[in-house]
């Protein structure tokens, strides 16, 4: 019998060696001895080999901290409750933890400890985002920021309120205060000058516009102005598409500026068209088309530009054909076939009416005439010079001489056309001779160009 | 005089132990006692616990209840070890217990046989010899029973240890499988869902 008793003792010893802190913790917890239970759970977490039991111990430990926290909370011992709920680390504990932080923040606020107050607010807002106190805390923090003139921080907080709790009473309560600072903040924002700052200021202003109650027009104007500034910067950099987009963006914010910007866009497009026309005038077709095309960077299907481009393409085609005809005409001219050359020059002129072809036509007509009756043509050139200016003056001198000296004394040569070494150049003379005074007029006439050159001083004087 | 000294020594010991054992609320409620220096670390720890908590249900399904396994080993030595896949140990316990029980039976049998011969013996020399033999074999048998019992108890204790280790391994396996492989476990009142 004693042997069996001995065996029983050994068995009891063996079993007792297998210590279970988790079970001990559960027993103590059931007896409401939460402190000792937590100590047992701590030992379990520290020593137990079984991870599952450790996990269970951690869960049970959390529950026990929560219960202890509740007791401290009921006795308004906020610092202790805070610590215990913190250690509980459960969603249930967090539902009280935010209240504890809130109470502590109220105490700090009462002591005018702003830093401490903000620290508690920060704990709630950062780590307990699901707290029902969040809108109220934001509201209070905004007030502190406004009092300390930290407008940027106040706005950042209001943004969160606005985005997440728009219809909350605390949001509505602080909204007028935020509205009051909008003109100041707007001024701050529009201080930014470089491109990136302007871009970021647009976002800021649009956000600000959302918050605005009484200053919508002011913010809208600043948005429109900022877009206009950006558009001008892009114009400067010749990024017309972006510039146009910025101008378009500005339209929705201010009617007056929208009209001005619309006019500005039209002016830019007109500028491209005018420049293109100028190129076209100088037969710089590809440059003209490029200029017209720039209008599409502003307005994708801008009709006048399309028409201008089509016209420029046609003009380019005509110019090529005109050049071929011109070359052909030059060939005919070199062969002294002036009629054919004239015909070809005229056809070329129909396609491309420029000074050169006009000159050539003029010359061809002259040459045809010169070839046919050169003397008569030379005389006709002189007679028709400046609507008969030369002839009229010559005849006036003749009449004066006749009146003065009589027909018998005055000898008049009449118009005489003389050959020169060049078969396209003739000398045309008119002499009035008397015993008292003589007049010798002589001009060299270029039949190709109808150019007249005076060959003596008297003749030259008549041409003036 | 000696009694007074002993009394002072005892009093000092009692007082100091009382002081040492005094509850330190600051230490007990120290927010950093678990290594969470800020709320983010605390939140991370909670997330980790939550993930592990979800795995407990899977663990509970896979684990072997310790006391049930000990009972198995109590009924048949080595059974519990077989359950925890410690086959060699289970076989050793089983064979050792069978051999010990067989040997024990043999010695008891021998003891009863010698005792029967002792009862029927008429010669004084035989009577003494048979009695001594019966007593010797009985002693052997009783010794072996005690040894078998000790092995049996150790077998149960070993089952406890093996089951604990086995369950710990089961937990590690579940954690590795579900936490490292990004497998999602969702808990519902009626059960759980595992998404791969």
Report what the structure shows:
The complex is a heterodimer of chains A (464) and B (196). Chain A is α+β, with helices and mostly antiparallel strands and 464 residues long. Chain A has a domain at 373-464. Chain A has 21 helices and five strands. Chain A has helices at 2-17, 21-30, 34-47, 51-74, 78-88, 91-110, 114-127, 134-147, 151-164, 169-189, 195-211, 216-236, 240-251, 255-281, 285-298, 303-334, 338-351, 355-372, 374-383, 389-405, 457-463, and strands at residues 411-412, 416-419, 425-433, 438-446, 451-454. In chain A, α14 runs parallel beside α16 (303-334) and α16 (303-334) packs antiparallel against α17 (338-351). The termini of chain A are far apart. By secondary structure, chain B is mainly alpha-helical. Chain B has one domain. In chain B, α6 runs antiparallel to α7.
Question: What descriptors fit this protein?
Answer:
heterodimer, A: 464 residues, alpha+beta, 5-stranded antiparallel beta sheet, 5 strands, rod-shaped, B: 196 residues, mainly alpha, two-stranded antiparallel ribbon, 7 helices, 2 strands, 5% strand, elongated
Secondary structure blueprint with pairings:
The complex is a heterodimer of chains A (464) and B (196).
Chain A: H1 2-17, H2 21-30, H3 34-47, H4 51-74, H5 78-88, H6 91-110, H7 114-127, H8 134-147, H9 151-164, H10 169-189, H11 195-211, H12 216-236, H13 240-251, H14 255-281, H15 285-298, H16 303-334, H17 338-351, H18 355-372, H19 374-383, H20 389-405, E1 411-412, E2 416-419, E3 425-433, E4 438-446, E5 451-454, H21 457-463
Antiparallel strand pairs in A: 1-3, 2-3, 3-4, 4-5
Chain B: H1 2-20, H2 25-28, H3 39-62, H4 66-75, H5 79-83, H6 87-120, H7 124-180, E1 184-188, E2 191-195
What's the number of extended β-strand segments of chain A? Answer: 5
Helix content of chain A: over 70%
Instruction: Give the largest interface.
Output: A-B, 31 and 40 residues
Ends distance of chain A:
164 Å
Sheet/helix structural class of chain B: mainly alpha
End-to-end distance of chain B: 79 Å
Number of strands of chain B: 2
Please tally the helical runs of chain B, counting DSSP H or I stretches of 4 or more residues.
Answer: 7
Name the assembly state.
heterodimer
Number of domains of chain B: 1
* DSSP helical segment count of chain A: 21
Strand content of chain B: 5-15%
pLDDT average of chain B, as an integer? 85
Taking the sheet with the most strands of chain B, its summary is:
2 strands, antiparallel
| Residues in helices of chain B, as a percent range | over 70%
Shape verdict of chain B: elongated
* Silhouette of chain A: rod-shaped
From the alpha carbons, calculate the radius of gyration of chain B and give it in angstroms.
30 Å
């Amino acid at each position: 019998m004693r042997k069996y008793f001995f065996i029983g003792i050994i068995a009891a010893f063996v079993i007792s060696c297998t210590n279970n802190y988790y079970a001990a913790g559960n027993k103590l917890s059931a007896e409401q001895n939460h402190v000792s239970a937590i100590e047992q759970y701590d030992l379990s977490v520290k020593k137990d080999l079984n991870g599952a039991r450790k996990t269970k111990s951690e869960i049970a430990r959390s529950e026990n901290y929560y219960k202890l926290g509740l007791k401290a909370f009921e006795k308004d011992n906020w610092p202790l409750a805070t610590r215990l709920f913190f250690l509980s680390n459960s969603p249930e504990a967090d539902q009280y933890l935010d209240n504890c932080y809130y109470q502590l923040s109220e105490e700090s606020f009462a002591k005018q400890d702003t830093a401490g107050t903000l620290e508690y607010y920060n704990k709630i807002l950062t780590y307990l985002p699901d707290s029902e106190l969040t809108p109220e805390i934001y509201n209070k923090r905004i007030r502190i920021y406004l009092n300390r003139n930290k407008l940027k921080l106040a706005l950042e907080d209001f943004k969160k309120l606005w985005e997440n709790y728009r219809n909350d009473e605390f949001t509505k309560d602080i909204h007028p205060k935020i509205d009051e600072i909008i003109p100041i903040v707007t001024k701050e924002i529009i201080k930014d000058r470089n491109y990136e700052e302007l871009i970021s200021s647009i976002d800021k202003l649009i956000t600000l516009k959302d918050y605005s109650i009484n200053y919508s027009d002011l913010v809208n104007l600043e948005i429109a102005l900022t877009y206009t500034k950006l558009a001008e910067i892009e114009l400067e950099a010749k990024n017309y598409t972006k510039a146009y987009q910025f101008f378009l963006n500005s339209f929705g914010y201010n009617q007056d500026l929208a009209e001005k910007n619309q006019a500005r866009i039209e002016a830019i497009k007109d500028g491209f068209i005018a420049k293109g026309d100028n190129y076209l005038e100088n037969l710089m077709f590809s440059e003209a088309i490029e200029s017209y095309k720039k209008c599409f960077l502003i307005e994708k299907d801008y009709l006048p530009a399309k028409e201008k481009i089509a016209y420029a393409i046609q003009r380019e085609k005509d110019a090529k054909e005109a050049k071929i005809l011109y070359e052909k005409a030059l060939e005919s001219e070199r062969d002294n076939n002036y009629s054919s050359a004239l015909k070809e020059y005229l056809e070329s002129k129909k396609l491309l009416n420029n000074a050169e072809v006009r000159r050539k036509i003029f010359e061809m007509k002259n040459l045809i005439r010169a070839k046919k009756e050169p003397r008569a043509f030379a005389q006709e050139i002189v007679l028709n010079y400046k609507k008969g200016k030369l002839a009229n003056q010559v005849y006036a001198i003749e009449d004066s001489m006749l009146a003065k000296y009589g027909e018998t004394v005055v000898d008049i040569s009449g118009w005489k056309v003389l050959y020169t070494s060049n078969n396209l150049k003739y000398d045309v003379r008119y002499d009035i001779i008397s015993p008292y005074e003589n007049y010798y007029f002589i001009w060299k006439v270029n039949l190709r160009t109808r150019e007249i050159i005076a060959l003596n001083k008297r003749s030259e004087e008549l041409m003036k | 005089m000696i009694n007074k000294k002993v009394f002072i020594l005892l009093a000092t010991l009692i007082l100091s132990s009382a002081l040492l054992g005094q509850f330190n609320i600051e230490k007990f409620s120290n927010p950093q006692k678990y290594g969470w220096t800020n709320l983010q670390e605390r939140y991370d720890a909670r997330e980790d616990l939550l993930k592990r908590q979800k795995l407990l249900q899977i663990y509970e399904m896979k684990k072997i209840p310790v006391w049930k396994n000990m009972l198995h080993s109590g009924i048949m030595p080595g059974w519990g070890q077989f359950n925890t896949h410690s086959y060699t140990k289970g076989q050793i316990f089983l064979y050792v217990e069978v051999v010990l029980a067989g040997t024990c039976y043999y010695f008891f049998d021998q003891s009863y046989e010698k005792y029967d011969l002792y009862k029927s013996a008429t010669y004084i020399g035989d009577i003494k010899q048979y009695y001594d033999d019966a007593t010797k074999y009985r002693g052997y048998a009783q010794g072996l029973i005690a040894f078998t019992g000790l092995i049996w108890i150790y077998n149960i204790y070993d089952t406890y240890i093996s089951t604990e280790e086995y369950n710990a391994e089961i937990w590690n396996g579940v954690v590795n499988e579900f936490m490292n492989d990004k497998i999602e476990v969702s808990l519902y009142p009626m059960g759980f869902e595992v998404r791969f």
